[in-house]
Fold this protein.
Amino acid sequence: MKRLLSIAILALAVYAPNASAQQDHSARKYVRQGIERFTKGDISGAIADYDRALSADPKFAEAYFNRGKAKRAQGDLNGAISDYEAAAELDPQLAENNRDISQAYLNRGYIRSNHLDLDGALADFDRAIRLDPKDADAYFKRGRALLIEGNVNFAIADFDKSISLDDHNPLVFAERALAHQTKGQKEEAQKDFQQGLKLNNDLRLMIDMHLLDLQMQMKEMRRRQAAIHRNIA
């Protein structure tokens, strides 16, 4: 009886590593297949392969990361970010200075900002900046959300940072001009507006339309904020 028990234990000890190795091999095979499908434009097929990889190995960070890329390409930003977060939790190095992940947060933040979900937008922009602190566009978009929210000084600080990283975006100067104008700083506003116009090859209509859209969002946000204050009072 003892002999049989010893044999059974030995068999389990040999089987366990082999099973683990097979699972790892299968997961990697499916990820390779998924990457190949993704490069050929078969996004759904790639996601199906990444799903199979995660069924074989639920803790395979690379599978989560690549599935996140595929979901982002498919337009599923929430799903992409969920997978990116799972990958980063399993392998923090995957998230370090990773533009795919930071851009997913940046894109979702911009969508949230346009829907005036400013708390959600600012949380996404903060995360994008933590992942890529040298992304001028992230500071620009966070500055825009802060301006819509009414935090003009913080907005200007973000516009300043964006311009220090990349001074070729005419819209940053245009929005900083509006922020200065909001504070009654007419000279600074005029200077920024002229610089934005210069960078945009003197095509004023595009800048005017952009600022009109921003002002409409600011006005709607003030209306909502006033309604909340009235309800509280």
